[in-house]
Specification:
27% of the residues lie in helices and 30% in strands. The chain contains 6 helices and 16 strands. Strands 5-4-3-2-1-16 form a 6-stranded mixed sheet. Strands 8-9-10-11-14-15 form a 6-stranded mixed sheet, with helices on one face. Strands 6-7 form a two-stranded antiparallel ribbon. Helix 1 packs parallel to helix 3. The longest helix is centred in the last third of the chain and has 19 residues, at 190-208. It is globular.
């Protein structure tokens, strides 16, 4: 078999862990009931806290993180691959946190971690200002991980987060390393999302010949921050298989994994790099 049913959980995270985990867990259960064996949640699944001081005070270290423990137990209960787009994780020096994604196996084990590499330091024309580098320690390592399901062994998935999606070289490197699926769980702003979200997701799929699966935060969060939603699943040829709106929901799609090689055979750009000078 070369088919895999995947799901994106779209949600509006609270500024506290408990209500956010409850919302995510309900939607994860819905996704599993709809047949998904790989389920992805957005960036900042358990907390959208705009205050740096409060965020650092609430950021649990990984070994004590109640949200992570809850999601590990849920993955084991449901027998699913659960990709938590990211959690806010406290670091030993407590001066910054990690924005860290997790892959959790159907046995509830953490099989991969990814710390967001690219920090969103931007003043947006709608009046919002973001300085992620002041709060988060940037990751240094790209992450390609494996997923085995009863129907498919050896599936390779590249883990990224949100703003990473604007840096095409990361995705090209993951595809060249063997990725079949690329992911960019996000908390995209409404302003930038309306302009760029869909085209960036499709571009990453087209230029790599990969499926792209990206769950998004949606709605209005603490202190008026607005996120775009529009969780999306894109095929290797660039067509959108499923896209959400701007409210909490679950979207699913069945991926025909043979399409990865088909797309790369039709446009073998991963093999056509040329040296050049400027």
């Amino acid at each position: 078999m070369t088919k895999l049913t995947v799901a994106c959980v779209q949600m509006t995270a609270d500024r506290e862990d408990a209500p956010s985990v409850a919302m995510a867990s309900e939607l994860i259960r819905e996704a599993q009931a709809r047949g998904a064996s790989y389920i992805q949640t957005p960036e900042c699944t358990s907390m959208m806290e705009p205050s740096k001081k409060l965020l650092l005070a609430k950021a649990w270290p990984e070994e004590e993180h109640p949200a992570l423990q809850a999601f590990q137990a849920l993955a084991a209960e449901l027998g699913i691959w659960l990709h938590i787009g990211s959690l806010i994780v406290g670091l030993p020096d407590q001066e910054k946190a990690a924005n860290r994604g997790y892959m959790i196996s159907p046995e509830g084990r953490i099989t991969a971690r990814y710390d967001k590499i690219h920090m969103f330091d931007v003043d947006i024309p709608d009046g919002q200002r973001y300085q992620e580098s002041a709060t988060f320690e940037a990751g240094k390592q790209a992450v390609l991980t494996g997923i085995d399901t009863p129907d498919h062994v050896g599936l390779k998935l590249g883990m990224t987060i949100c703003y990473d999606v604007r840096f095409g070289a990361l995705y090209r490197s993951l595809a060249k390393a063997g990725a079949d699926i690329l992911t960019a769980p996000a908390a995209f702003t409404r302003f930038t999302g309306q302009a760029h979200w869909s085209v960036l997701q499709r571009a990453r799929a087209i230029e790599t010949g990969c499926f792209v699966v990206s769950a998004g935060q949606c709605g209005t969060h603490a202190e008026g921050r607005e996120t775009y939603g529009h969780s999306i699943i894109v095929a290797p040829w660039g067509e959108v298989l499923e896209e959400a709106g701007e409210a909490p929901c679950v979207i699913t799609a069945e991926l025909d994994l043979e399409r990865v090689q088909q797309a790369r055979n039709m446009v073998p750009s991963l093999n056509n790099d040329q040296a050049f000078s400027l």
